[in-house]
Every structure is written in structure tokens, then in C-alpha cells.
Amino acid sequence: MLTLQTEQLPFVYAVFTGCALLFSFLINGLLLKLSRTLGVKNQPDDLVRWSETSKPAVGGISFYILFLFAIASYSILFGAVDYLNDIIQFLGVMAACSLGFVVGLADDAYNTKPFLKFAAQFCSGIILIATGTVINISGILPIDYFITMFWVVGLMNSINMLDNMDGITTSVSISIILGGLYMIWSRGEVHSIYFITLLGVLAGLLGFLYFNWNPSKMYMGDTGSQFLGVFLAVVGIHYLWNGHAGPEFRIQTKQFIVALLVFIVPVIDTTTVTINRLLKGKSPFVGGRDHTTHHLSYLGLSDRQVAYVFIGMSLMSVVLLVVIDRAIGAEWHYHHFAMFLLYFLLLFGFLYGITRKNRHLEK
């Protein structure tokens, strides 16, 4: 174990992130060469992806490897006794993320039944709740447990559904992690294992984005989306939902708005798709080319332009997070809640309106 001074942390983290980024790039390059047929997605009859070209869906493996690499690095750089205050809670995070990774890997390899996938998602939520990762918003445990379960399972499905066009889910996940890193930094918790873990997964995503940017060479697959779903859900719980917790109701509205804004892309896309498919009498969980990403393409935007639109939305959410945390802070009032909620509703209304206008163009 090394003994690090606070002033040494920026350099150490910069070196770690650089090494992790290089590691991610090399891993994904190796996986691309080794997986000519393994994990190939997008056969001609597959309507989940926008592209009609079959490509290996093994990029998510690198996310999990970098996740483990970050944990191992933490054990070397820091003393767990000194900085890892709740070992049981983090072990629960590791177990839930690992379960998400395994069920995603199984789905990519064997096309597992939806029930098995949902059962694993439900178990991931149970593991997190049992080990103390719970959204604290109502003060009533059964309600908080239900909200936490809905958040975890919903986000695992949302991230999976959003992975339908080159670079979208990867870019959105990067923005969410940036929001989490900001919250950890702003609270002076840079010694936390979550900080270096977020850096590791961030490096994994950045390295993978080179291969996933349009025109992509590979996809993350369910292996990546299921792992990211759990991991990002944990980030949201610890540093968005609970990061703004307070005793007064007006503070609880702040928790809700912060989480809503940072996860604005998956929330809007999943809500839009769910509403439209239910109106058609279809299951929300069956793949199709009716996402907000697809409808922007129907308007004439290229795949890269669609990615830029969603990157802009995600980064704006991070900017708004900083504004809420720094400029507003404890002065949060109901008019702030109304203002940011209006922003979300306007954006949702715009994207949902596009899907209704262009619904005759869906393939």
C-alpha cells in the first residue's frame, strides 16, 4: 500500500486515467481482432440496431475489465481501512455490477429469455438494497425500496434500449459519469473508491468510443449495457439522489430534478418509446426503430449529427448540475424546481412530438 498526500492525487489520478485509457484502447482492439464471429449482432432480421451491418458486440467486456482494474488500483494506492468506510455496501455494488455483466454476456452469447434477464435485473436491485445502496427520498423504507428497485431495473432496461445507434449510449454514459465525478470532487471525497472506479469506467468508455463512433467497428452489446445500467444507477443513487438529500420537501424536489436532468437522455427516450408502443398495443421491451434517435434521422440528420445532438443534451445537463450545486446550492426553492422541470418538459415535448409527427416513417 502506498501513502499518498492530497496534493499528489491529481497527478496520480491523471496517470491512472491515462493508463486506463490506453488499456481500454488495447483491450478493445484485441477484442475486435479476436471476435470475428463471437458476439456478432445485427443480422438482417434484427430491428434493434439502426445499422444493417453485422458487427461484434463485445465492447462491454472492456468496461468490466477497467472496473476491476480500478478497484485493484485502489487497493494498491489507498488503505481500505482508512478510506473504504462501508465495505459491505461496496461489495454489494461489485456483486450487482458483476451480475449485470454476466447476464449481459449470457444474453449476447445465447440470447437468453426475457424473464431470465428481468430476474437478474431484479436480483441486482435486491443486492444493492440489501447492502445499503438505497434512494433516500421519502423517509419511508418500503417506498424508498420500491423507488430504488424501479430506478435500477428501469435504468438497466433504459440503457439497453438506448444502445441503438453508433456512439449514443457511450457518449451519454460518459456525460453521466462526468456528473458523478463532479459531485464527488465538489464534496471533497476524492479519496473515495467510487472516484477512481468512475475514472476507470470513464477511460473504458473513452477507449471504446473510438471503435463505436460512426461508422462503428463494434458494439458494446448487452454485456456493456447491462453492466452500465447497474453502474450508472449506483452513481445516480449515491451522488445525485442522495447527494442532495435534506430534511425539507423542497430539498427532496432538488434530488428529483438533479437525477432527472443528468439522466435526461435515457429517461426521455425510454418514456417516449414506452408511451408510443403502448399506444400501438405493443410491448415496450421489443426492439424497433422508433426511438428518438431514429426519428431525428427521419428528419434528415446523419448518424453523427444525431450523436452530436444527444452529446449536447447530456453535457448541458452536467452544466445545469454545476449551476444547481454552485449557484443555487442551499437556496433551492419551488420556483427553481418549476424552472428546471419546465426545461425537461419542453425537451421531452419536442422529442416526443417528433416521434408522433414521423410515426408513419418507422420501419
Could you walk me through the main structural features you see in this protein, from its secondary elements to its overall organization?
This protein is mainly α and 363 residues long. The chain has one domain (8-361). The protein is 71% helix and 1% strand. It is built from 14 helices and two strands. It has helices at residues 9-34, 60-77, 80-83, 87-110, 114-130, 141-162, 168-186, 193-212, 221-241, 249-262, 264-279, 292-298, 303-328, 334-357, and strands at residues 40-41, 55-56. It has a two-stranded antiparallel sheet. It is globular and about 55 Å long. The N and C termini lie far apart (56 Å). 45% of the residues are buried.
Q: What distinguishing features does this structure have?
A:
single chain, 363 residues, mainly alpha, 14 helices, 2 strands, 71% helix
Give the structure's gist in a few sentences.
The chain is mainly α and 363 residues long. Helix content is 71%, strand content 1%.
Shape: globular
Number of domains: 1
Number of strands: 2
What's the overall average pLDDT, rounded? 86
Major β-sheet strand ordering: 1-2
Largest sheet: 2 strands, antiparallel
Helix content: over 70%
The secondary-structure class comes to mainly alpha
- What is the number of helical segments per DSSP (H or I, 4+ residues)? 14
What is the rounded distance between the termini?
Answer: 56 Å
The run of helices and strands is HEEHHHHHHHHHHHHH
Work out the strand percent: under 5%
The value of Rg in angstroms is: 20 Å
State the low-pLDDT regions, or none. 42-47
